[in-house]
Each structure stands twice: as C-alpha cells, then as structure tokens.
C-alpha cells in the first residue's frame, strides 16, 4: 500500500485528499495548520480512512520530519511558500506532485532532484498543468508546430458586483496574475508583456462573452517546447480588467510598506484582506472553469489546428468547486500514474513531459472524464 501525504487541506487540497482516499491501494493523510480545515474535511468524508495531522508546514524542520514516513507527497500549499516546500520535500528524497503556483523557476531544483533520485512533477493543475500537457500532446502530432494559444479562467456561476469574481484560492495568489509580467514566445524569442495587457473579447458556447488579458501562465512551456509563437491569457467577465488595473496602477497591489496615520502597512496585504471578503466563496456558491488550448501547425504539408475545450461546473452533489475538480483531479491522476510505476524519469518534470507519452495522456484524460471533467478535442484546418 502506498502512503501519500497531502500538504494543505484547503479548497483544492481537501478534495484531492478525499479523491485519493477512495483508492484501496492508498493510505492517505492530509496535513494543515488549521484545525477547522481538517475537521471540515473529516466531516465531509465521514466514514473514510482519511487521516489528518495538524502541522505548521511553513516550518521546514517539521515538514522534513513529516514527509519522511511517506512514499509520495502532494503539495497544495500557497505559492508564497511553494518553492521552499518543494525544495524540502526533494531534499527528503520523496517523489512529489506539486500544484503550488510559485514565481520561482522550478528547474533550479532539477539537479537536486536528480541527485536525490526524486521525480518531482510540478505545475500539476489545470493551467499550468493540463494546458501544458495537452499543448505538448498536440505538438507531438504535428510535423511543424507553429503556435500555441491558451485561454483559461475560473469564474463564479453568478455574476455579482462589483467584481463579478470569486477566488477558490488565496487572493494574494490571484493578484499575482494582475501584477506579474507575462512571458510569451514570439517568432522564437521570449518577450515580456505587462499583466492585464492586450485585452480581447471572445465568445464561448453556454457562457457568452468573456474578456482575455495577458498573464504569466506559459511557465515552463517557454523553455521546453520549440514552438515559434506561444501565449497564455486569463479569462474574466467583461469589465474586470479595468477595475483591477485601477487598483494596481494606484498602488494597492504594492509590496512596499507605506505609512498611514502613523501605522506602517503593506498595501498588498491590506488589499488582499479587504478583497478576501468580496472574493471568498460562500457556502453554496458555484464556480465554472473555462479553458481553450489551440495548437496550430503543419501535418503532411497541410495546415492543422488542434483545439481542446473545457467547460466544467461546481459539483453541487459533493460540494466540490470546479477549480478544485479541474486542478485537483489532474494532480491526483498524476499521483496514480506515478504510484503505479508508469513514469520513472528523475528530476523536475513539468506536465508537458508527460504530454509526450500517449499512455499518460490517455490515463489522465480517462481519469478526469470518470470524475466528470471532460476535455473536447476538435481538429480543423486553420
């Protein structure tokens, strides 16, 4: 039996732990510093074999001791501590599947992972994650790949002002999408564009009009795929860009301390605290995940466009948000793939490496479909 430890019992970590605990071959424990999150998880999965531990996972010493007794680690901690968490797990010599969206370059830990004999699959969410895997899979089907364009967004089912947005993870991590410069590939060269730039409107079936803006979502794709043009854009309901751009340009997202009435505050922390109440998912709030991955190129001398579309909704029967489903179940299927001994490459492994293997893509897509997360493939002539 494989012993798996899930780090983090939040809106994504919790459903991942429950999903894995349903496998007879897994002994699953979830760790978190918040007692309430752990108690809620046990209540949601009453009668299961899931175990919980209250641990301060920001303490690298405690974290190293914790993972020592497990075969596989699933990291669902916030991006702010994600990179150091990954380093600690690798140093402990444990295979790891990671969904933390940290700003650091994961390949900085590649040599360490190889030295420790560790397989560390990073960015295992929906985007980055499935976007990388499907783009690489499509590239492998073309003779001459020419472009990759990714649109993705997590949105509330109900459009309520003023933001028409809800977050299923840390507001600070969401704000990163609005401030971190976006890295693209144009004509074979890496270029930098400001976040929120180059807005455009797109129509999506069953959703309607959405707006897209530049965001830093290519991640490792910019370094691992030889495709002349690659870009990722985030989707929101129309009007959202202007609102958050006004906050950003006024300094509300700054990390530099300022003095207000004799008190020193960090604007980003202050803004995150306020936005948390507006953006927090309340009980019964539903969300949707929209993604489109378009890869174009030549096949047998003819133009080919391979498109993957995803439209996923909140699972009301099991009270699992769509972003938790699309992100979390991607990661749990990769856990199963590793636990089954189906992939053994050591080092830092971004999802596009898995996308090179037909059996891996089929395994993950089948597992997602069994859980109601369905990607629709369309092949056309551009």
Question: How would you describe this structure in keywords?
Answer:
382 residues; alpha/beta; Rossmann fold; Dihydrodipicolinate Reductase, domain 2; seven-stranded parallel β-sheet; globular
Give the structure's gist in a few sentences.
The protein has 382 residues and is α/β, with parallel strands linked by helices. The protein is 34% helix and 29% strand. Helix 1 (13-21) crosses helix 11 (322-339).
Description of the molecule:
It is built from 13 helices and 18 strands. A seven-stranded parallel β-sheet has the order 3-2-1-4-5-6-17, with helices on both faces. Strands 10-11-12-7-15-16-18 form a seven-stranded mixed β-sheet, covered by helices on one side. The protein is of the alpha/beta class and 382 residues long.
Task: Describe the secondary structure blueprint for this structure.
Blueprint: E1 2-7, H1 13-21, E2 26-32, H2 35-44, E3 51-54, H3 60-67, E4 72-75, H4 79-91, E5 95-98, H5 110-116, E6 119-121, H6 130-139, E7 144-156, H7 171-179, E8 182-186, E9 189-193, E10 200-204, E11 208-214, H8 221-224, E12 229-236, H9 240-250, E13 258-260, E14 263-265, H10 267-279, E15 287-299, E16 302-313, H11 322-339, E17 347-349, H12 351-354, H13 358-370, E18 375-380
Parallel strand pairs: 1-2, 1-4, 2-3, 4-5, 5-6, 6-17, 7-12
Antiparallel strand pairs: 7-15, 8-9, 10-11, 11-12, 13-14, 15-16, 16-18
- Specify the CATH architecture of the largest domain: 2-Layer Sandwich
- Spatial sequence of strands, sheet with the most strands: 3-2-1-4-5-6-17
Report the end-to-end length measured between terminal Cα atoms: 48 Å
Mean pLDDT: 94
- CATH fold type of the largest domain: Dihydrodipicolinate Reductase, domain 2
